[in-house]
Amino acid sequence: MTLADLERDNNGYLKDLNEWNEDIAVEFSKEEGITLTDDSFKLINFLRNEYINNNANQPNERNMVKGLKDDWNGKLSTKELYILFPKGPAKQAGKIAGLPETKRKGGY
Fold it and tell me: Contact at 8 Å (CB) between 21 and 27?
């Protein structure tokens, strides 16, 4: 399946999060102009888990840091999340994770 085969909203977010897989994430990251790392996937998988298993929760950056700090190699702060996802970890990582667009305030 390619990105062209996927149903997306006007901002490029997947309409069906069940169509997502890691290959799709890599294709989305190419569209976004970033390269995914193991740490990128830690955040992506954390966001998917929160959304799927915690009542469609889309955590803010502070809660991402709290939720990931035990699994992170080295010190984790919001800065590290923005290095991985420069357009904003909530929106950009969420998009790459196949989640609906967050309605929280913030640029992108």
Answer: no
